[in-house]
């Protein structure tokens, strides 16, 4: 087909515009506008047209984003305005001192210090770069270098899809934008998975991977790293006076021109607002898709900057408030074995004390023997310890270059270090277990603490120290013995007065009235967490019927119901209830093993004899309650009612004004399911302050995260529409 050249040119221009619009939607607005396959089709179409008509080539075509020709070396770029660094603050006092200095300098310059405002924003953990635009087109990009002269990495930066190659109309004739290049965590994980698949060394962190990516001589390699960009400031600008006088205003304006700008920022009137911003961001840090290493505060009145001035090569009008480092190197002094409630032997690293993530860490779990071998950790090694947010500290890896000659391998013991019973490793399991059960004092103590905890029997005042003494002195052998403890016995323990002994005896007595589900949870049966305990209590209604359950019959009935539903579902027929929904064969096996053990039945009988009275749930699901043979074919119950019906929600972190169990109760009251772990089946994660790995998992799986206020609003809105 022979089309006139200007028609081809117009088509090329249209395709370029469309592709950049989609890029912007995807990489800047985080709201993809077309399916990937459609994008790829348009891209291929443009590539073909450009190849056939090289006379229409331009350097800022979206096709250049896959990378151009390699270079021998990077050229040098002298920055028109120097790229400064920031002073750091590591604690509240340093922030208060910064605020004082700023106010004094402003006042000394005759500025009205009482109208001072700060713009608070994220401190991205990547590399500073400067982007130069002339007449709205990206012409040059450079690294910071020594602040005065950097390297010309223009071709590499063209591959960063969130960097606009052409600006929206209205941009100044000359514009330098300063910001950070970084790698999203998901892209980093994918990159390291690829490295591992090729047998290459993994990158240590996203920052290093981004730095390496930006300094590739071959831009096609940069393109593969999928780097991102966030703008946070300006360099040289031709019509300065047309710009907003506030830094926050400039950030909004940059966003309007097509630049990605950090989503979390605030204008603050005083140092207390800055510190509140810092704490808020610290609590959200783990949920962000990229790393930040602090927040930055800048005087918002840009025209005050010159007057407030500079110290050395950093401005006095801005400061970085850093988060405590999350990783540190220390010595692995020894490896001990800890015995858990279920007898699992866990290797624990004893570390030379090291300050990391804001606390001094001396121990870290090593999980199991496989983990030790996978990480190739030897006693005596220097190791990287990580403590991110509230997550328990972990040993990330050894530093092999610093391995001492006398480093030695840890050998898993064949016997329990506490009671001397044999340790066994069941087929298919990573963990070694002590077979001692309640004979083992470590397990006994843990079992009693589990029994007494707030979410189980809720015995206030029965803490680790007391339990340790009770077990050590053989005053209790099973949880049932708690009910025989006297005030005088307890008052004889260390750090126990008559008053607290009397309180504890009263708390133990009060725990006799307990719901069946808490009681079942308290028994510490393997795999029976709170949710399973609830299902069991609802289904069986009483301890007697649970103990008399016909497990064979139930397993057969479960399988039959699941089969019937599998047939009914594609035909949209009514489904039947599956008995013990969510209680799989593994849990049934654990229940049978527990209930089959005469020792456990004795303990339960002793508990009942001591007056413990597990009360049946108020609303037993009548169609599910059964003891003997399950008859399939019940019509399914109507879907649960309520604002959260059909939603599986995981609660994590510290919620303001509500405990986690209370939030879970709230979820259930409104028809939702509260679950303990995040999976693809989770609908929402309800996150409070200092949420850790669950939040991270939600963000990795793309599961929406809501706060308590939002959930309350969902409930409120629903209730409003119902009334
Ligand atoms: S402003 C005149 N804002 O932190 C101030 N820097 O030592 C120039 N950084 O090299 C920097 N996020 O790489 C600023 N929101 C932010 C930032 C930020 C990260 C980096 C930047 C700079 C270093 C400061």
What's the helix and strand layout?
Blueprint: H1 5-28, H2 36-52, E1 76-78, E2 87-89, H3 92-108, E3 118-124, E4 127-134, E5 137-143, E6 149-151, H4 154-158, E7 174-182, H5 185-197, H6 206-214, H7 219-224, E8 228-237, H8 247-257, E9 266-268, H9 271-284, E10 292-299, H10 305-308, E11 310-311, E12 314-315, E13 318-322, E14 327-339, E15 344-356, E16 359-365, H11 369-375, E17 382-386, E18 394-398, E19 423-425, E20 432-434, H12 441-452, H13 464-472, H14 487-491, H15 498-510, E21 513-515, H16 516-522, H17 530-540, H18 543-547, H19 551-568, H20 585-596, H21 598-609, E22 613-615, E23 648-652, H22 660-669, E24 673-675, E25 684-687, H23 693-701, E26 705-706, H24 708-722
Parallel strand pairs: 2-13, 21-22, 23-24, 23-25, 25-26
Antiparallel strand pairs: 1-6, 3-9, 3-10, 4-5, 4-7, 7-8, 10-13, 11-12, 14-15, 14-17, 15-16, 15-20, 17-18, 19-20
2-(butylsulfanyl)adenosine (IVH) binds at residues 84-86, 121-124, 128, 144, 180, 232-233, 296, 315, 318, 320.
